[in-house]
Amino acid sequence: MEILADKKLERKLNEVKPDLIIDAIGMNCPAHVLVAKSKLIKMTSKQIAQFVSNDKSCLYMVPKLVKSLFGYEVMMQYEDDGKFVFLIKRDQ
Q1: How far are the Cα atoms of 23, 66, 74 from residue 38, in angstroms, in the given order?
Q2: Is residue 27 a contact partner of residue 53, using CB atoms and an 8 Å limit?
Q3: Could you say which DSSP state residue 86 is in?
Q4: Longest C-alpha distance within the chain, in Å?
Q5: Which of 12, 91, 6, 83 is nearest to 48 (CA)?
Q6: pLDDT tens per residue across span 43-88
């Protein structure tokens, strides 16, 4: 998982286009994790999801969720104006 500086982050984001956006703004734990899981398990191989939340608990819960799902990885995470953003890839 990468946590990137501003310029490097901007370049990296321009390279990555998510196939799915999971908008969990306004949801608290565990709701945002349940929504994320239900959408992530429907992804096909090589797809990328962007998960966005404003609940700070996602900093712990999302990586834990992704680690529990076989064949998924957090490619990158960053904070943008109070929103926590994760790019999650399904490898298998």
Answers
A1: 13, 12, 16
A2: yes
A3: E
A4: 33
A5: 91
A6: 999 999 999 999 999 999 999 999 999 999 999 999 989 999 999 9
Would you give the end-to-end CA distance of the chain in angstroms? 17
Say how far apart CA 36 and CA 8 lie, in whole Å.
26
Whole-angstrom CA distances from 7 to 31, 40, 92 are 33, 29, 30
Q: Scan for tokens 């500086």, then name that residue.
A: 5
Specify whether domain 21-90 bears CATH 3.30.110.40: yes
Whole-prediction pTM value? Answer: 0.84
**Ramachandran angles phi, psi of 7, nearest 5°:** -65, -45
Burial class (CB in 10 A: 0-12, 13-18, 19+), 74: middle
Distance CA 46, CA 91 (A): 5
Amino acid sitting at position 91: D
